[in-house]
Design brief:
CATH superfamily of the largest domain: Periplasmic binding protein-like II
Shape: elongated
Number of strands: 11
Helix content: 25-40%
CATH topology of the largest domain: D-Maltodextrin-Binding Protein, domain 2
Radius of gyration: 24 Å
Number of domains: 3
Length: about 290
């Protein structure tokens, strides 16, 4: 069991990149963590971390060892889960990452917490492309095509993306009938947080006919764009779940619909090498059924 404790400390240091933070999470001192890592390195005869005054990073041997250790801890968790299944409901900590779409994500998480009060959620709301395995997430929700062979995926749903503006804005500025007219309109644009590039409005036009959109307002989160569109600030390209209620009430209107045909698909992803514990299985099933895309 001492070896298992050392493995647990090693994985925690690898995921937090900090002896102090690993110790805090494990309830021991940073000195105890450091001594445990040193003993493990002595036993294995290799250096697992590059240490400096500013950072701790894995060596090549450490990265290889990390993947094996995660599998070992996963098997231990699986064994514990199998024994505890009969004793009660799923329990424990789940570390997940989701897009920064609180209006879509939080109702599902709220319902999940009510149904499974013994599961603790550690949620990273972020639009950046996280490394699920390297950063130690149990599962993530993301959009777009998924091609990572290390991961298992489940499709959560799809919805259309539409160009919208408020009734008030269109009364003031007029309703555009062709994308070329947008050069005279206020455009609320989304910037991808990872690349810093602006999201293209996917008009079905020849490249030479693509209008250069005025950058009236740029944001790396799309919920902000929906808010500003409702305040008569301009046009925004958004998934329908963001604007569903506003479209139903007439506060927002779809424009240039004949020129756009695009959908966005949401996926749940989790490590293929990791045992799908009861807490992870119920989370995947609940979100699949209750995420209102």
């Amino acid at each position: 069991m001492d070896s298992l404790s050392g493995i647990s400390m090693f994985v925690q240091v690898a995921e937090t990149r900090s002896f102090t933070e690993a110790g805090r999470l494990l309830g021991v001192s940073s000195s105890a963590v450091g001594k445990s890592i040193a003993r493990t390195e002595d036993r294995l005869g290799v250096r697992l971390f590059h240490r400096s005054t500013r950072s701790i990073t894995l060596t090549a041997e450490g990265a290889l060892f990390l993947e094996r250790c995660r599998r070992i801890l996963g098997e231990v968790e699986a064994a514990e889960a199998e024994l505890s299944d009969a004793a009660g409901s799923p329990r424990g900590r789940l570390r997940i990452s989701t897009p920064q779409l609180s209006g879509l994500i939080m109702p599902a998480l709220d319902g999940f917490m009510t149904q499974y009060p013994e599961i603790e959620l550690d949620v990273d709301l972020s639009d950046r492309m996280v490394d699920i395995i390297e950063e130690g997430f149990d599962a993530v929700i993301r959009t777009g095509e998924q091609h990572d062979s290390r991961l298992v995926s489940r499709r959560l749903g799809s919805c259309a993306q539409v160009l919208v503006a408020s009734t008030g804005y269109l009364k003031q500025q007029g309703v555009p009938t062709h994308p070329s007219e947008l050069v005279r309109h206020a455009c609320l644009l989304h910037k991808f947080p990872t690349t810093g590039k602006l999201e293209r409005w996917p008009f079905q036009l020849a490249a030479s006919e693509e209008p250069e959109l005025p950058q009236t307002f740029v944001s790396n989160t799309i919920e902000v764009l929906g808010f500003l569109a409702l305040q008569d600030k301009g046009l925004a390209f958004l998934p329908t779940f963001i604007v569903r209620d506003a479209l139903a009430s007439g506060a927002l209107q779809i424009v240039l619909d004949d020129f756009i045909d695009q959908t966005v698909t949401f996926w749940m992803l989790w490590p293929a090498s990791r045992y799908a514990s009861p807490k992870l299985r119920v989370f995947i099933d609940y979100v699949s059924k209750n995420l209102q895309i």
